[in-house]
Amino acid sequence: MEIITSVGIILFLYFTYYYYSYFTRPNPLPGPFPLPFIGTLLQIGLEPHKWAEKNLNDSIDIWEFYAGPIRVIVPCDAKYVDKIYLSYNESKSLSKEAMFSKRGVAIYDEVGIQNGVVFNNDFHKWKRSRQFITKVLMSKKHHIEFLNSSQKIFKEYEKQWDKNDIITLDFSKWISLYKAKVTIATVIGQPLYNLPSFDSISRAASEYVAMFAFLVFAPKIIISIFMFFGFNTIKKESVFLNGTIRSIIQKRRDKIMSGSTPNFNLLDLLLITNSSSNSEGYIEGEQPMNDEEIETNLAEIIAASIETTGNAFCFLVYNVAKNPLNHEKLCAEIFKIFGSDTNSMVTYETLEKCHYVDALVKETLRNSNPVPYNLRVLDGDDSTDKFHWSPGTWFLIDNQRIMNNPKYWNEPMKFNPGRFLSEEHGGTNEFSNMCKNGYVPFGGGLIICPGRNIAIIELKLLAILFFRKYNIELVNNESIKYVYRTANQVHDFMIKISQKKKNNIVYNSFGFKDQPY
Ligand code: HEM
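Above: the input record for the complex with protoporphyrin IX containing FE. Below: its predicted structure, written as tokens.
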């Protein structure tokens, strides 16, 4: 009896404290009403945008919800992210800049993903990893190598498709598998060593990325139960957490140490950077990376690369298939630049000439960004627009609503690549007048996505490879289906692929009427 009374008193005191803190919180914002322990889980689940779409009108540009006991602020207007997305050059002092650089919470230490960049709470360790991976991911040499490997893999699929008149496939599954192959080839090189099938790698990438949203949004009590009962099973199954990647790193390190020439993939490049076997691109004052650092960084990059670009390309295909005019313009440009040879290699230089393809990719990332949110935790205290925030405040920046804000974009719901084209190239030039941070598909500031250039290159390449040779038709007329699990993951996206017939006149409204295909 006494125990029940004591528990009752403790709960009463906790509830009183909880709601006292809630009703006296600074800067109260619109949002669902929270419950102790589970916060707004019942209303929001793990998908904040669904609640926002149903309950918030366009005039609300900042709102809040509760992940368990943690208050999460959701800015949806570019004006709130000026400081959060402050670039390195704009900031006078690094410590000031670092205030908005964290994404981590204590739970990640138990999961063991804190040694990479995504959830690294130690600013100096993050900076060290980030320098290594940026050096490789942003290099032109890596981009060229990436283009070559991707096209080699794509050609294998072409061979199969070209044997048939029509192929019907679930494109979301196909792209995931293709992405797993390209990513493994460019990140750790062939052969697969002791990795499982590409199919299981793509599934593991999806789970790994989804785990981030779970760890961020689920109440701590639920995460603790999961850690106790379920995490070890996940760890055993996951190629990213179970040590498989570590053993590949060790093998490659031994081989390079015993004289094998490093290949041009991310793993080999990380192994040799700042080691004696590499004279090129030395990073000042840093020791080479150890196996543990390389492991987490590779896991993050493989998973981030498969999940983001793959889903973005599904959205691109969907938007092109739904908009015949965009399809025509795309094919016209491809024909103008690549001619009728549908098998030629796409090079870095030819990609740069494709203005419409570039605009199409950028509009896809604006209209249907695969990474709609971005978590940042404030380190010190600071202000965003008129609000002042205390240390430890969580911000879930709604990149998707920022990029669809009617204040900044004309008819934002309309898919219109012309926004990203100059008048000279037939567009409206809307993008060139965009406010700072009005277009943020890759986040911004110090921890902006380091894979952004490679992602754009890959999306442009895939658009060209598909649409120069194949007709793509949606199997049904439904809207594209996707679920938010850190990335917007597309599923059940059925399309028909058939090879274009030679001599078909397809470009009639764009000056190619007399040109055979
Ligand atoms: C369309 C494709 C992609 C989109 C939309 C995207 C988007 C994002 C966003 C929004 C962030 C958070 C940035 C911030 O907090 O400001 C991010 C971070 C990151 N992305 Fe991407 N990304 C894409 C492709 C890639 C690719 C291809 C790679 C790797 C090759 C990659 C690797 C990473 C990594 C490692 C981070 C964490 C950076 C850090 O914390 O320092 N991403 N990405």
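Notes for the reader.
The pocket of protoporphyrin IX containing FE is lined by residues 117-118, 130, 137, 300-301, 304-305, 308-309, 312, 365, 369-371, 374, 441-445, 447-451, 454-455 (CB under 6 Å).
Residues 61 and 76 are 5 Å apart (CA to CA).
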